[in-house]
Design a protein that fits this description.
two-stranded antiparallel sheet; Non-ribosomal Peptide Synthetase Peptidyl Carrier Protein, Chain A; 324 residues; TIM Barrel; alpha/beta; binds flavin mononucleotide; 11 strands
Length: 324
């Protein structure tokens, strides 16, 4: 069985079926470019509010920015109103996205209170209207990202995958954990298999993928593709590593030194994209994923998170790298 292969999502063909998950505050343009370099077949942008786009929010507008180096890219939108969802999908298309994804899996209270994210899983009629509105408004493929369940009492993955297919979605991503579990616990591979058996569109499995063994498990369950979230933070080359491992090659090892060099490069790209203040600030949020596994890592991280200037950060990293 071949585990790694191109993926056909509507009119888009990806080079492989390993996909970077959308992660708010993390999968912005600089990080997506890095993950494509790291072997991802498709990268997903952090979710952007359809409502905020409608009101011309500058921060949300910037979230739609697509770098020419980052194709194929999927823009994820969230919202609860058909018109603003249709408008946001059009905006994503105009910005250069290769596909648009509708979020129906986010368990964050603020999002749910506004009628978006995982609450849509229990209002199938509304979810269908939103998805159809997005599908009708653009020429690029529209996909759905949702979960296998809200809680452990009832599995909804197969129903929601079918709903997505019936509404014209080109693929569906299922996070194989219940919304009640947020991001913790083992993925439910049986629930993924049931959903895969229900539809013809590609089902992309997500949740807890950190190595080739889990990729095999998901593909054996019937998934066409596999989406990786936190496994890529601090290791954007995980996609290539998994491809290598499945091809019987030795994956290039990510030692602390290599990881720090990649992180510094990402910080520099963040500064170029956002400016120094915001770029450094955003970079800090994931420092725990990057600055680790060497003797004085905690101390270095402590110094780094107090730094505002890129020049100071470069000096700190140069000192650390020379000692590793
Ligand atoms: C910090 C963070 C932000 C996230 N933001 C989003 C988001 O914007 N949209 C979304 O659909 N899922 C979001 N997720 C969920 C991920 O896409 C993914 O489903 C989840 O992390 C499980 O995959 P993993 O176990 O490989 O990390 C987020 C997860 C994390 C940890």
């Amino acid at each position: 069985m071949t585990f790694i292969h191109p993926l056909q999502i509507g009119s888009v063909t990806t080079k492989n079926n390993l996909i970077l998950a959308p992660m708010a505050g993390i999968t912005d343009s600089p990080f997506r470019v890095l993950c494509l370099r790291g072997g991802a077949g498709l990268v997903c942008a952090e979710m952007v509010s359809a409502h905020a786009l409608h009101y011309g929010n500058a921060k949300s507008g910037k979230m739609l920015q697509v770098n020419p180096k980052e194709h194929p890219v999927s823009m994820q939108i969230f919202g609860s109103d058909e018109q603003t969802i249709a408008e946001a999908a059009k905006n994503a298309e105009a910005a250069g996205a290769d596909m648009v994804d509708l979020n129906a899996g986010c368990p964050v209270k603020k999002i749910n209170k506004a009628g978006a994210g995982c609450v849509l899983m229990k209002d199938e009629a509304k979810l269908a209207r939103l998805l159809e509105a997005a599908v009708k408004s653009v020429k690029i493929p529209v996909t759905l990202k949702t979960r296998i369940a809200l809680n452990h009492k009832e599995f909804l993955g197969a129903r929601l995958a079918k709903l997505a297919e019936d509404c014209g979605a080109a693929a569906v991503t299922l996070h194989a954990r219940a919304a009640a579990d947020v991001h913790s616990g083992e993925p439910n591979v049986d629930a993924l298999a049931k959903a895969c058996a229900e539809v013809k569109i590609p089902v992309i499995g997500n949740g807890g993928v950190l190595n080739a063994a889990r990729v095999k498990e998901f593909i054996n369950a019937g998934c066409a593709g596999v989406m990786i979230g936190r496994g890529a933070v601090g290791n954007p080359f995980i996609f290539q590593d998994i491809c290598d491992e499945l091809a019987g090659k030795t994956p290039s090892s990510q030692d602390s030194k290599k990881r720090l060099e990649i992180y510094l490069n990402l910080i520099e790209e963040n500064v170029a994209f956002y400016g120094e203040r915001i770029g450094v600030n955003r970079s800090r949020k994931t420092s725990g994923y990057w600055i680790k596994d060497f003797p004085n890592a905690a101390d270095v991280r402590g110094q780094f998170v107090r730094m505002d200037a890129l020049s100071d950060i470069r000096k700190l990293f140069a000192d650390v790298l020379s000692g590793l």
